[in-house]
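Researcher: Next sequence.
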Amino acid sequence: MARLYLVRHGRATGGFGEAADPGLDAVGHQQAESMAQTLAPLGPLPTMTSPLRRARDTAAALERAWDTMALVDAALGEVPAPSDDLAERDAWIRQAMGQTWTELGPRYLSWRTMVTELLLRIKVDTVVVSHFVAINAVIGHATSDDRVMCAAVGNASVTTVDTDMKAFTLVEVGEQDATVVQ
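Model: Next structure:
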């Protein structure tokens, strides 16, 4: 059994519909440092991260605390929007948050499966720094909930799940926030 600490990236300089790959703002950097202080006594643990700047910036706080390097995996990136146009991305994500994976269709069911299967293969306790929708995909998998948004996990929150390489068991949902996606 492995325990996964799913960290949502800290607050970014722009949201899903405002910037393609923003870094963290000043509050986001503080959130990342606070998260690292909370998790530091557990490690050093292997750390995986999305390649997007806001996730990499968040994972960097753990890299400094543990004097380690996170493994960057593209599969932990943001849910793919049907368009690169920022306004269209924003409209799409807002609609998608109120839907189920089944309603989003095969492309998004495949993306959810890719994320969950990657994480189910982890054999040791690991920190995973990723994004709102990816973390919700894992929560939904653990609770058999088909909704895209199962929990409004806050920036730099830590959601804890156990995995036996076949399924997830939800241990604790990270701190929730009014901010849905950014």
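Model: The helical segments are 26-39, 53-66, 86-96, 101-104, 106-120, 132-143. The first strand starts at residue 2 and ends at 8.
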